[in-house]
Amino acid sequence: MPAISRRLVAEALGTLLLLATVIGSGIMAENLAGGNDAVALLGNTLATGAILAVLITTLAPLSGAHFNPAVTVAFLIRREIDAKTAAAYVGVQVLGGLAGAVLAHAMFDVDLLQISTKARTGMGQWLAEGVATFGLIATILATLKARPTAVAAMVGLYISAGYWFTASTSFANPAVTIARSFTDTFSGIAPADAPAFIAAQFVGAAAATGLMAWLLGGKRRDT
Length: 223
What we know:
The protein is mainly alpha-helical.
């Protein structure tokens, strides 16, 4: 297993590039879509699903490619990561996500520091985030059991689908949610609405972890 310093850098870098892609592609899509939100969302979806497949494939050998506090907590519950390392992972994921937001703003020559004004709230949105994160964790754990080499593709596909079948467009990631509260662009979320999203994400992650432990049982496959 790589040294903890390398694992933390991999987690920070992966989350940074994920957020740079989510926010940057959102800006690009909105600029090119001519006011058509469906086209803008499609552009945002394709970029996000693609970068997840790339980042998980390239960085999983270093850190496990969590890039998501909900994923880290799921593995903590499963005792596949210790509490100290999990806390460090979450810290660098949040910092990496914030850095990714700043990087996206810099690339598109907009204000580096922003506060989102985009409201995303209500029972449907909260339920959607719980469902989105439940499905993400279930996808990861089930794929690790069935075919570990397919995790990158399955996560990319799941999140791509989640952008469209959930009312919230499937944030499914507390670090992403925090970072997106600091961008007043297409992908933003008002800071006041972020805590409920994050709470729903952790509930969904815990529920999926418990159910999949019972449903799958046994050990994951090595290949």
